[in-house]
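EI: anyone free to look at a 185-residue chain?
SC: sure, send it
EI:
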Amino acid sequence: MWQDYSNALFSALGLSGLAFAIGKLVVATGERMIEKRHGTGNVRETITRRAKLETGLEARKGERAAQIKEADGAVQDMLRRRSVLERQLKDAQQTSEMLVRQIGEELAGTPCYLAMVVNKYVGNAAFQQKQHAFIDSSWSQPQMIEVWARSMAEARAEIERRYPPAFGYVVTRLQDMDKPVAKAG
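SC: here you go
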């Protein structure tokens, strides 16, 4: 009797194993037929490749976010610095002292020339209604410039190099600090 039960048990286990193997074979064959019919061969490889791409893109997205945050911080810093500089410029313009620009270096034996420069485009009537796009409105009034140069001709050349006549800058007066006024042409 025990032998009948054990034979039945082994037969049942054998048949269930055989049924499992046949089912697995049917599923694998069905998958291949579906892949061939719908042209989805190598789907697993594609999924693996795309998963790697997705991981790489996520990492790149994180790097880019950090770069954007850093650039935003730099822009904010520049805006703060600009605000401080504009405030300082406004304070300097409101003080009773006149702003003096300098060209060249003060060297022993090098004479200093005083020039008055104005921009004709800023002072032009067409621009009186609105502010010039590139040139500060203070240039509508003569601006004082100290030029350290060996000669008056060299001083004029340095002024024109820094403030080109092509951009509307005009030297209205140029004089040696130790000599009387010489009108500029």
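EI: The chain has a mean pLDDT of 84.
SC: 👍
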